[in-house]
UniProtKB/TrEMBL annotation:
Lineage: Eukaryota, Metazoa, Ecdysozoa, Arthropoda, Hexapoda
Organism expressing this protein natively: Cnaphalocrocis medinalis (Rice leaffolder moth)
Keyword Signal set for record: yes
Pfam families: PBP_GOBP
Record keywords, A-Z: Signal
GO molecular function: odorant binding
InterPro entries hit by this protein: PBP/GOBP, PBP_GOBP_sf
SMART domains: PhBP
Signal peptide from the UniProt entry: 1-22
The protein, known as: Odorant binding protein 26
């Protein structure tokens, strides 16, 4: 997975990585390019424009996002498996492709494992993974500031 981008639906994950101090401009561009493929495909499937996603990102409004749009991207990138369950091992493995700092890798591993608690939540859509994906996005959003450089300098 971890083909992160800066769009909100999937951008919370990207924000976690893109704010990591070890991420270079080239790494960020690679993340954005990789993720955009998934975002576009799922946006078309759900009739959501990239501009609408960008607007939601700017408003920090994940509540207004279709959970199945989030699920589509997370499944497409293998962050959520075919059973509708989050796979932290995939998140960790793929984040290692983008993070060069051992500290950032370790911190993201902690975050990815903490967010595995979404697999314990009751959801009504089972294998679809829509509700769990939205819970996962919320969990990553909660941890966003932990990899921001300014938070580490304190």
């Amino acid at each position: 997975m971890m083909k992160f981008n800066l769009l909100l639906t999937f951008g919370v994950l990207a924000a976690v990585l893109s704010n990591a101090r070890a991420l270079t401009k080239e790494e960020l561009e690679t993340i954005q390019k990789d993720m955009l493929v998934h975002v576009k495909a799922c946006s078309e499937k759900f009739g959501v424009s990239i501009d609408e996603i960008k607007a939601a990102k700017e408003k920090h409004d994940i509540e207004g996002m279709d959970p199945c749009l989030i699920g589509c991207v997370f499944k497409s990138t293998k962050l959520v498996n075919d059973e509708g369950m989050y796979d932290p091992d995939v998140a960790i493995e793929d984040s290692n492709k983008y993070l060069s700092s051992d500290d950032d890798k370790a911190k993201f591993k902690d975050i990815a494992n903490d967010c595995a608690k979404v697999n314990d939540e009751d959801v009504s859509d089972g294998k679809e993974g829509c509700e769990r994906s939205k819970l996962l996005l919320g969990c990553f959003a909660k941890h966003k500031s932990e990899l921001m450089p300014e938070a580490r300098r304190r």
